[in-house]
Amino acid sequence: MGSESQIPEWASTPCIMGIDEAGRGPVLGPMVYGCLYCPVSYKKTLSTLEFADSKTLKEEKREELFESLKADETIRWAVDVIDPRVLSAKMLQKNKINLNEISHESAMGLVKRVLNMGYLLTEVYVDTVGDPEKYRIKLTERFPSIKFVVAKKADSLYPVVSGASIVAKVTRDHALQNWNFDETAENMHRNFGSGYPGDPSTKGWLEHHKHSVFGFPSLVRFSWGTCESYFKGGVEVLWEADEADDDGSSKKTVKRQTKLSNLGFTGMKRKSEDIESSGKGRCKFFQSRKLEQLSHF
Amino acid sequence: MKGESIIDLGGVNSSSAVDLTDQIHQLPCCIKFNGPSPVSHYFKPKSTGVEVDALNVKEAHFRGRKLQGTTVTLPHGYSGFVIGKKTPAKRKASDTNGGMTDSWQANAKFQNITLWNHDNLPSKEDAFLRAFHWFDVAKALHKPVTADDMESASNPGATSTD
Description:
The complex is a heterodimer. Chain A is an alpha/beta fold. Chain A has helices at about 45, 60-70, 85-90, 100-115, 130-140, 155, 160-175, 200-210, 225-230, 250-260, 285; strands spanning about 15-20, 30-40, 75-80, 120-125, 145-150, 235-240. Chain A is built from 11 helices and 6 strands. Mean pLDDT of chain A is about 85; it is low at about 245-275. By secondary structure, chain B is α/β, with parallel strands linked by helices. Chain B is built from 4 helices and 10 strands, in the order ββββαββββββααα. In chain B, strand 5 (about 45-50) and strand 6 (about 55-60) form a beta hairpin. The interface between A and B is large, with 42 and 33 residues. Chain B: One of its GO terms (cellular component) is ribonuclease H2 complex.
């Protein structure tokens, strides 16, 4: 999503871009990466447009500024909306991808998209929560022709990043307001508050929407530590993907997991976690197809 | 030796039997729960349009994990059954093995199953689908030998003439 009008003439002149994110911390909803770009020569005008860190602006002001930047012929914008299902899935897959990596890929995706459209990006300003220098090197290696400025709190230092933060924040707010639940359970509602784990509305929403078997609706980021406390007393679910978890704290799970895949038919009473048959002790044909003979169950 | 298990498949072949075709899923995890659950309200498989090994790939999420799966029709002549333990009726005196007989009955029947992998695309090399190979092997092993088969086996060079 982003500006859809034709490529302006200024695209071929040196351009600057700001990149910022909204919804990194919340336990629910999408994480949005937004960018704003314009000619280098527009930098001065940009600083007169009242763009400020989106967190310091009231919702109406953010909406108003978003509308005005959309109408500005010398400004273009784009967003990458990362679905909570994608966040959960990537962070919980066998080869787990952490949030920083997802964030970096998203930001780089925006740069690539704008370059591919034909804009001559020469300076890109990026907000980060991680180590700015490491991130700057990563970005420079990927896009050698661009000068990157990576800084913590860049959204309050550079107007072009403030603008990007407004784009990202308004997009996330709209995505939440218009969220269509995949789930069709009864009594679901959208009073999820800010989505931050400490927000009383968010807490109430999570408590109301938890389910002992399914956990939560897929709006929730299952990979967030916050979810654990809500799962207490819920149904335990074991995954083979967690086997590779080297984290010492989850040793108990690891042990049980190993059993799940290695234990075959031993003649002992099967435990509920020994879900897989193995064909152990039979000829290879059966073993490789996990076919075992059951005379009693 | 343990006692025998008896499975009664009668009753599911009538038209009033519960048919769970399109509703049976095999998940790549262990859910430590047995009982009813609002599956259709939370578990929403979607077609991806992708095809692997001529299998239509579906996508779903469970507990934040992305699952990729495919629905396979059981081979012709085979059915799947959901069986449950029969509540013991009055035991006859002739039941000599003293309650060692396990009695099960089929509660529902199904003609397809959706197999789900975590992270991996479904493939015809997945163990569950490979298990279907046994059907052909079993057929070859147990097919009655006809007189013609005997004939051709004892006279390998013989050709049939009219």
